[in-house]
Amino acid sequence: RALQLKPDDAEAHNILGFALVKQGRWPEAILHYERALQLKPDLTVAHANLGKALAQQGQWAEAILHYERALRINPDDAGVFFNLGNALAQQGRWPAAIQNYERALQLQPDSAEAGCNLAWLLATCRDAPFRNPAEALRRAQRACDLTHSRNPVVLDTMAAAQAAGGDFVQAVATAKEALALATAGGKERLAREIERRLALYQAGQ
C-alpha cells in the first residue's frame, strides 16, 4: 500500500523485500531490494539484505559484491562481516573468509555463531595450510561457553576441533552430546551429518 502511494520509496521497497523473505519468496524479495538500491544506492541495509537473499539462492559472487558495498558504507557492521565470511568460505576463499570472521568477532566478541563458523573452518578446511586445530579448539570452546554447551551445531564444531587436534576420545564424547541434542530437537538432517562424523571419529579419522 505504501508503494502504491509512493512507488519510489526506497525504504519501503527494502522493508517489503524483508517481508517477502519471511515468506520464502526470495526472487520477489530480490527484485524489491534491487529496486531500493536503484532508488538509493547507498542504502546499506538493502545491500546487506540483497546479499543475504542472493546467498540463499547460491549466487555467492553477487552476494559478496553487495556485502562489500555495504561495508564500504558502514565498515563496523559485524553481521555483514560474518555473512561475507560465509560467502567467501562457500567459494573456497579461505584467507579472506577467516579475516572476515575475525573482524566480525572483533566487533562482536560474544557472537557464538561467528566463533563457531570460524572454528569449523579452522578445524576442517580441506586446504591443510589453513587448518589450525589449536585455534579452532579455542574458538569452539568460547562458542560452547556462550551457548552453555546446549547448541548441537556448536558441539558438533567442538567435536571437529577435537578430532582435528587428534583427541578422538573426546571428539566421540562431544559428538554424542551433539547428536542427542540434534535428535531431541528434531533436527534430522543435522543428526545424520553428526552420525557420519561420529563414525569417523570412532575410527580415529
Structure description:
The mean pLDDT is 96. This protein is mainly alpha-helical and 205 residues long. It is 77% helix and 0% strand.
Brief write-up:
This protein is 77% helix and 0% strand. With 205 residues, the chain is an all-alpha fold. The longest helix is centred in the last third of the chain and has 17 residues, at 168-184.
Series of H and E elements = HHHHHHHHHHHH
Structural class call reads mainly alpha
Report how far apart the termini are: 58 Å
Measured as a percent range, the helix fraction is: over 70%
Number of strands: 0
Overall outline: elongated
Return residue spans where pLDDT drops below 50 for at least 5 consecutive residues.
none
Percentage of residues in strands = under 5%
Q: What is the overall number of helices?
A: 12
Write the layout of secondary structure elements.
Elements: H1 2-5, H2 10-22, H3 26-39, H4 44-56, H5 60-73, H6 78-90, H7 94-107, H8 112-124, H9 133-146, H10 152-164, H11 168-184, H12 188-202
Helix pairs in contact: 2-3, 2-4, 3-4, 4-5, 5-6, 6-7, 7-8, 8-9, 8-10, 9-10, 10-11, 10-12, 11-12
Give structural attributes.
single chain, 205 residues, mainly alpha, 12 helices
